Amino acid sequence: MVDEELLKLGYNATPQFIGSLTELVWTQIENVALDLEAFAKHAGRKTITVDDVMLLTRRNEGLESVLRAYLDEVKGGGKKKGK
Asked: I need a labelling partner for 74 at 20 to 30 A (CA). Which of 19, 35, 49, 66 fits?
């Protein structure tokens, strides 16, 4: 997937780069999963909720704003603001 996308952009990636990127992404996913589980457990729940995900995004303003906008759209039934 990485190689295909880079080729579309006119770049080439070595197998070492792709392997390193894959490992980095996998480690990040594992860390996110552990954090979400910890947030839910701390709240006395066994289920991860939207609140847990939003708590996870608190230090990434860009991601938080994208997710908040999506939540607002979903809660509003898909209606855009001002319409």
From this structure: 35
Q: pLDDT tens across 45-67, in order?
A: 999 999 999 999 999 999 999 99
Locus of tokens 């952009």? 9
What's this model's pTM, rounded to 2 decimal places? 0.74
Q: Which two tokens stand for residue 73?
A: 């759209």
How far is the CA of 12 from the CAs of 3, 24, 49, 51, in angstroms? 7, 19, 39, 40
- Which residue type, as a one-letter code, is found at position 65? S
Are 22 and 37 spatial neighbours (Cβ–Cβ below 8 Å)?
no
